Amino acid sequence: MARLRGIFAPTLTPVQTDLTPDVGRWIDHCRWLLDSGCHGLCPFGTTSEANSFSVEERMELLEQLVEAGVAPHVLMPGTGCCALTDTVRLTAHSVRLGCAGVLMLPPFYYKGVSDDGLFRSYAEVIERVGDHRLRIYLYHIPPMSQVGISLRLIDRLVA
What is the distance between the alpha carbons of residues 115 and 108, in angstroms, rounded to a whole number? Predict the structure, then answer.
């Protein structure tokens, strides 16, 4: 798989008055970002308010974006969730769709998790997804997640 290069912009997630995602406006926004020179998109991160939406909503939005003609190889969706099973489902779905990679938060609800615990969590996701196409980009954003990703952990993950 080719190395990702260029600008991968976080996307907003417009909502309707009933607080469900506004799919049409979201697709238009994503196309606008790409048409404006972005090389790729990072939906379902902090800017997207990913944790305000269910895993099912995120999976459906991603499917609709690809069905609307946005190439999956320019997508790096955020897939890190509180529950390991949700992270696995969303990650596997992204890989099946052909996304360039996934932007994965560490498990973030419980604080003070050791590097060993974080390593085991990432390893479990990799094992359960079980697809050689999986490319994980670590989402290190401690001001939001309150869980950091240490250099020691990164070294261990790439070994």
Answer: 13
Quick count: other Cβ atoms within 10 Å of Cβ 144?
12
Decide if pLDDT at 1 tops 70.
no
Pick the CATH number of 8-158 from 3.40.50.720, 1.20.1250.20, 3.20.20.70, 1.20.120.550: 3.20.20.70
Q: Would you say the pTM of this structure is higher than 0.90?
A: yes
Band the pLDDT of 2: cuts 50, 70, 90.
Answer: low
Q: Which of 93, 88, 92, 94 is nearest to 107 (CA)?
A: 88
Contact 149, 106 (CB under 8 A): yes
d(CA 26, CA 14): 6
74 Cβ contact list (under 8 Å, min separation 6): 34, 39, 40, 41, 100
* Structural domain boundaries in the chain: 8-158
